[in-house]
Amino acid sequence: MGFAGSVSSPPPPLQLSSSSSSSSSSSSWSKSALFSVTPVSFSPPTGKNAQYRKRLVVLSKRVSPLEEAMRIRRERELQKTVKFRKRPPLRRGRVSPRLPVPDGIPKPPYLGSNELPDISSEHQIHDSEGIVKMRAACELAARVLVNAGKLVRPSVTTNEIDKAVHQMIIAAGAYPSPLGYGGFPKSVCTSVNECMCHGIPDSRQLQDGDIINIDVTVYLNGYHGDTSKTFLCGNVNDALKRLVKVTEECLERGIALCKDGASFKKIGKRISEHAEKYGYGVVERFVGHGVGTVFHSEPLILHNRNDRPGIMVEGETFTIEPILTIGSTECITWPDNWTTLTADGSPAAQFEHTILITRTGAEILTKC
Fold first, then answer.
1. Which residue from 32, 185, 281, 354 has the fewest beta carbons nearer than 10 Å?
2. pTM for the whole thing?
3. Does 238 carry a binding-site annotation?
């Protein structure tokens, strides 16, 4: 389950500068350069003048076509849009009452308050016993997510998915971590189409061609396991399939560079590089986080280019959970203070794993 807390404070991502002013000046320069080869001189040049004029014309002929090609390419890239079938915007459905949890199941300490808990400043680094418990919690979360994904089909409501997830978790003697966290009313997050994250399950039926992210976190024996995946519902078009595929690839590429001593900022760089190849935006507001006995802690994992300091440590656990969009990465949040959508209504996809840092790499604890 991603977290948005203090994400606005990190330094802005590094960007390739491409201001409109420089673009227009480059464009006008290339046009004048193109025309500079055609005028005819009224007086034939002589001596050094002739040699200079000849070199100037040759230089113009060599450079101008390249400049013009680059200008055309830039214009095409700016005009290029990924076509996808516009779906009716999400509408709030009926949210049913929260489901009960048996008294005998241990519950996380944040229950009883509707206030979001502070992010712990401590990195969660585990001993051998803690790693065993983390593995158990993450394995359960992964199994629940796989079974929840099997429910995804047209006409099923996200409320039905929530009920099934809730039952699977409590049947295993665990607590559904989102339930009651900062007042969240359900046991799982279900984010459909343009919903970036933190969608509250309700009475809306899934439609043929939807995509849905299911975000499962369980609290087992005092440890949280956190994972999510975007599923396809029925006949999904190619543009959305590609968005989902590339988002999962971004997660895999981010995990691949993790190991003891690696810089956290490399994750955002690697994810951004891959997303940009396909023209997708990487949402900056929502981040990965440390996870273990505490639901959300440092380190905060930025998925965009950044200069955030810090290195990974063996035995540490945290999530990586990039959100990619076809259009705008800006967002709006419904009055429920949770459901967050892309500002322009374009689709978004997300994948998440909890990983354990090892001396030589990273173990994916939520891989099923």
1. 32
2. 0.80
3. no
